[in-house]
Amino acid sequence: xxxxxxxxxxxxxxxxxxxxxxxxxxxxxxxxxxxxxxxxxxxxxxxxxxxxxxxx
Length: 56
Description:
27% of the residues lie in helices and 18% in strands. It is of the alpha+beta class and 56 residues long. The protein is flat, with a radius of gyration of 13 Å.
């Protein structure tokens, strides 16, 4: 997504995350080489949805 033509010129891309494993930019380092993870992390901003307070 960061490299998609419509986002290439963006200084910052805001992602709204609602799953626990994507709630941290550190997750990028688990999926990509360190250089690529850093490049992506510099471009992305994560916004978190509230965790459900309901007990299952």
